[in-house]
Amino acid sequence: MSRADDLRARAASLGPWFHNIEIAPGVFTAPDHFLGNYPDVKWRGFAHAIPQDLTGRSVLDIGCNGGFYAIEMKRRGAARVVGLDEDPDYLAQGRFAAEALGAEIEFRQGSVYDVAALGERFDVVLFMGVLYHLRHPLLALDLIHAHACADLLVFQSMQRGARTVSPVEADYDFFETGHFDRPDYPKLHFIEQRYAGDPTNWWAPNRACTEAMLRAAGFAITAHPEEEVYLCRRVEAPAVAAPVYPARPAGSG
């Protein structure tokens, strides 16, 4: 069996894949992906906005899935890349893809709510395609700000609703309600059951909501290179912004 055939067989045994990664010339992990060559088609829309040279930088990829973006960060010279995901199947895929490509990437099991346990800040944090799968999305951004991100946040979320953003006043009178009815007022649409057949699709922000949530968590938007992608710098969070740490039940250890 040739190396290409061996890689195809090993990739198939680890499927299904959501990340279609070229692990050798002409060998892809998900050649029949329903979105085409995904996420490469997404990456091409904003790759130019990410620093081309990440030499000496550390990168954390939260919700790394099969490792596509972690691998791209390593290709740009990042000294240390950590992929974090809850799903052991995705982590197995990521380790396999990184090994096949000779990319030194550390994969750890955990969620965005576990970032404090990593015990370090990263120069670049990728938070791609995760927010709308979370029951507590703003908490996730707060935790990234408080514990994980040292400088640059690369953020992406599915968005639905109005794509326009209008100015919002700093305060409104209690009896003034008209702004809530505007399509472009920040809205986080709640999905009680399923969306696109996925029970983990909990939220769908409109563009105004995405941008407002990022600012509210202490991230200044510096670029919007693709419809759903934002580049942000970590800045001081608003005085009222702080992560919540639930108390453990008595006797839980």
Describe the strand arrangement of the main beta sheet, using strand numbers.
Answer: 5-4-3-6-7-11-10
The strand count comes to: 11
Beta-strand proportion: 15-25%
- Counting DSSP H or I runs of 4 or more residues, the number of helices is 6
Rg from alpha-carbon coordinates: 19 Å
Topology as H/E string? Answer: HEEHEHEHEEHEEEHEE
Please state the average pLDDT score: 96
Uncertain regions spanning at least 5 consecutive residues: none
**Structural class per helix/strand content?**
alpha/beta
Shape: globular
Tell me the distance between the termini.
Answer: 52 Å
Tell me about the biggest sheet? Answer: 7 strands, mixed
The portion of residues assigned to helices is 10-25%
Structural commentary:
23% of the residues lie in helices and 22% in strands. It is globular. The mean pLDDT is 96. α4 links the parallel β4 (80-85) and β5 (106-109). The longest helix has 14 residues, at 88-101. With 253 residues, it is of the alpha/beta class. The chain has helices at 3-13, 40-43, 68-75, 88-101, 137-148, 207-216, and strands at residues 22-24, 27-28, 58-62, 80-85, 106-109, 122-128, 149-156, 188-190, 203-205, 219-226, 229-234. Strands 5-4-3-6-7-11-10 form a seven-stranded mixed beta sheet, with helices on both faces. The protein has a two-stranded antiparallel ribbon with strand order 1-2. It is built from six helices and eleven strands.
Quick synopsis:
With 253 residues, this protein is an alpha/beta fold. It is 23% helix and 22% strand.
List the helices and strands and how they pair.
Layout: H1 3-13, E1 22-24, E2 27-28, H2 40-43, E3 58-62, H3 68-75, E4 80-85, H4 88-101, E5 106-109, E6 122-128, H5 137-148, E7 149-156, E8 188-190, E9 203-205, H6 207-216, E10 219-226, E11 229-234
